[in-house]
Design the sequence.
């Protein structure tokens, strides 16, 4: 029995003294869950893209079509929804908040100050082709601070650029919902299934 234990320790020591290339080849290991209670360890080449989180199923500007839909209005408050539809051929997933920048008719930025709200908060939303997700929008048309009261408080946006969560390329959409007072402050929720 002692010989067996000693042989096992020697085998472990010899394996640990392998070449640098062997160590590099074994440095990238991914633990894959199996259907049983044990896990299987599979080697992954160091340059393999599967070692990182796959981004291929994220919804990008390339597959989404965006629009803003007006909601209720009252007492200087305006509400709307930023709606995105999967125009691609495969399902994709959104998880989080959109970026949003209002633009004038020449494409120049109009003051926009996004404030994220917690209701609803981030949760993965998978969009099959042709289905949509929405994010709630809320802003005011009541001038604040040094904004004028006898004319529009801000330049009215003609369009907007919206960026899907975890992406950098924007989608273009028509705004047409009037000026946004309070320095362009817009409250926005995370995306949810529409």
Sequence:
């Amino acid at each position: 029995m002692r010989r067996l234990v000693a042989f096992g320790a020697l085998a472990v020591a010899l394996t640990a003294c392998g070449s640098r290339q062997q160590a590099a080849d074994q440095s990238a290991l991914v633990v894959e869950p199996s259907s049983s209670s044990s896990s299987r360890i599979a080697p992954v080449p160091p340059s393999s893209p599967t070692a990182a989180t796959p981004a291929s199923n994220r919804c990008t500007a390339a597959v989404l079509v965006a629009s803003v839909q007006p909601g209720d209005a009252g007492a200087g408050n305006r509400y709307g929804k930023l709606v995105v539809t999967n125009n691609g051929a495969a399902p994709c997933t959104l998880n989080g908040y959109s970026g949003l920048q209002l633009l004038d008719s020449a494409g120049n930025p109009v003051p926009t100050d996004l404030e994220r709200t917690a209701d609803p908060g981030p949760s993965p939303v998978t969009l099959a082709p042709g289905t949509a997700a929405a994010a709630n929008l809320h802003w005011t048309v009541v001038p604040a601070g040094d904004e004028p009261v006898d004319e529009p408080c801000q330049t009215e946006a003609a369009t907007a650029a919206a960026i899907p969560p975890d992406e950098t390329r924007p989608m273009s959409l028509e705004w047409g919902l009037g000026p946004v007072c309070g320095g362009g402050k817009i409250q926005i929720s995370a995306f949810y299934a529409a």
Notes: Helices lie at 2-16, 20-27, 181-184. Confidence is low (pLDDT under 50) at residues 1-54.
